[in-house]
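Please, structure for the following, as tokens.
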Amino acid sequence: MKATRITYKKLSFLLDSGEDLFIIIDIFKIPPPEDLKFPDGYKFSFVAFTKKNTLDQVRLDCHPPKKPHFHEGEKEFEFEWTGIDAALDLFWKKVEKKFGKLHPKKGG
């Protein structure tokens, strides 16, 4: 059985600097028996970056053999898994900490 994509979103916001911030939210539900390799059966990738420097990112993801983790620069740090909603909350907090306040884009 194949994984089921349950969410895929491409979002963009304006930063105080006027620069665009791009965000990709991608979540899959993994079927048994492979689901045991993922927290609650979720494989996910959350990424935020600017066009000016696409490598300067906030990134949270999960892929075997690693546990859920986030990236800061070249380093990776595991975080305690309490659910997909908590992982998304952590992502948004890290995005605002790194890039500042997010503003909706006018007309979209």
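Strands lie at 4-14, 20-29, 42-50, 58-61, 69-72, 75-78, 103-104. The chain has one domain: 4-104.
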